[in-house]
């Protein structure tokens, strides 16, 4: 789509992306409890809000332009490039758009890959405690992946609704992870407690190597 054209009303694109990301989340998340379904429902709501504004109706832009009026940073807020809120708030810089768009894709698809790797690894464990592969670095790679994807979506196309929803989703993932850990402790006991001590929950540890000078006497 050319950068100076109206970028909304593409409800086919809205529906396609909601179905694609929704089915992917359903396939890897595999909800079983009410808490699982609530978490998946919240993520689906995030996706619906995101793509409805990205391709359908730019509610955030209408709200901001009605509040700011002539003080809104760009003259034509409804074309493709100015629909990106971070770009618009910095005056419509195409350079920033060219940086943020590929960066957001790195987070989004990197997160999806992490989710997929974690899902394959855990389901190949056949009921045993998985501690190798990606599980050497984090205890809940699926939630790490969801977090990265959400961050990517916020970089790519932030809206007022998704900016509010994102922290709520992350809190839900944290609570769900803690609940799963309690279940794992009941199932595996000390083995899982020792695993928890070695491996962080969501963010891998960065091991810094300190180089010290040897003293020669």
UniProtKB/TrEMBL annotation:
The keyword Cytoplasm does not apply. Its main location: membrane. Keywords: Membrane, Methyltransferase, Transferase, Transmembrane, Transmembrane helix. The chain crosses the membrane at residues 6-28, 40-64, 99-119, 146-173. It is found in: Endomembrane system. GO terms for biological process: methylation. It is a multi-pass membrane protein. GO terms for cellular component: endomembrane system. The keyword Ion transport does not apply. This is Isoprenylcysteine carboxylmethyltransferase family protein.
């Amino acid at each position: 789509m050319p950068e100076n054209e109206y970028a909304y009303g593409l409800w086919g694109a809205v529906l396609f992306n909601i179905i694609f990301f929704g089915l992917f989340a359903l396939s890897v998340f595999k909800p079983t409890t009410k808490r699982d379904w609530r978490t998946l429902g919240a993520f689906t709501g995030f996706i619906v809000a995101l793509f409805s504004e990205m391709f359908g109706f730019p509610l955030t832009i209408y709200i901001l332009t009605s509040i700011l009026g002539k003080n809104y940073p760009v003259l034509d807020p409804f074309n493709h490039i100015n629909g990106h809120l971070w770009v618009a708030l910095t005056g419509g810089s195409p350079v920033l758009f060219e940086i943020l768009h590929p960066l957001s894709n790195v987070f989004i698809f990197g997160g999806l890959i992490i989710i997929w790797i974690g899902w394959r690894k855990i389901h190949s464990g056949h009921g045993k405690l998985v501690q190798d592969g990606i599980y050497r670095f984090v205890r809940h790679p699926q939630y790490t992946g969801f977090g990265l994807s959400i961050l990517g979506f916020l970089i790519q196309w932030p809206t007022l609704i998704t900016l509010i929803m994102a922290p709520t989703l992350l809190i839900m993932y944290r609570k769900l992870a803690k609940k799963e850990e309690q279940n794992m402790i009941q199932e595996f006991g000390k083995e899982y407690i020792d695993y928890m001590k070695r491996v962080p929950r969501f963010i891998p540890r960065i091991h810094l190597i300190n180089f010290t000078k040897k003293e020669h006497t």
